[in-house]
Amino acid sequence: MSPIDAEVLATLRASRVEGARVVLPPRQLPRSLYERTDRVLRDLGGRWCSSAQAHVFERDPSEGLARVLEGLDAQRDLGWFATPPSLARALVARARVRRGDRALAPAAGEGAIVEELLRAGARVTAVELDPWRVERLRSRFPEATVIEGDVLTMQPRDLGVFGAVVTCPPWRTWGLRGADAAHLAHALELVRYCGSVVAVVSAEAARGEARCAPKLRDELDALGAAVEPLESEAIGVEGPAVIVALREVGRC
User: Fold this and answer.
1) The model's pTM
2) What is the CATH number of domain 85-246?
3) What is the pLDDT of residues 141-196, one digit of tens each?
4) Helices 112-119 and 131-140 meet at what angle, rounded to 10?
5) How far is CA 83 from the centre of its chain?
6) If 205 and its partner were Cys, which of 17, 118, 181, 241 is the partner (CB 3.0–4.6 Å)?
7) How far apart are alpha carbons 206 and 161 in whole angstroms?
8) Residue 146 and residue 211: Cα distance in Å, rounded?
9) CA contacts within 13 A on the Cβ side of 8
């Protein structure tokens, strides 16, 4: 779901739920505000019904709406952005994941990469910081091991090592830049000898310009990383994005 601005947030909180309908505030909304609010409700599965003068859902939308409202601060502070399914599929393909491989999806978000890793036949561990998304991951992927917490605080002794680490990490966490560089550097510690790491990060991170990982560029060069430009608009982030792919880490 796209970031939600303060006006839309206020409008949603002033709306009321009646059975399987969401009724917007009685005042006339400016067109732009209505369109932004409508987009959020459509993302939740609702559709505008003129005869009902409400957004109509197939079931009671209370829980989904509450989760959206509760998750806004986490989405903003944790820097989450959605990974398109086509991109998740491409990342897993680049990692050359094979059936039976042990694979890690750190900063797993809502599970696009988890889904593709499972489809490839991997034994998947997913780590996610946001409790609400953890519950969604566990519900959607009972066959995966889902761990709640900050993967940056977890070491191989906690998680083990993996044949593949595939990630679209946040670029900012708690408002601080450089989270993507930290995630990529940490992924190199969690991949086993001859394993693969594939990540979407900012071009700044791949160039080793992030203060939190000053030696990252040298590590990527030494490991023969392939760096491929990516249209950042496709993932809803600001600034140039790249795919960093490392195969056979440790030069088998």
Assistant:
1) 0.69
2) 3.40.50.150
3) 999 999 998 898 899 999 999 999 999 998 877 556 788 999 999 999 999 988 99
4) 30
5) 6
6) 181
7) 23
8) 30
9) 19
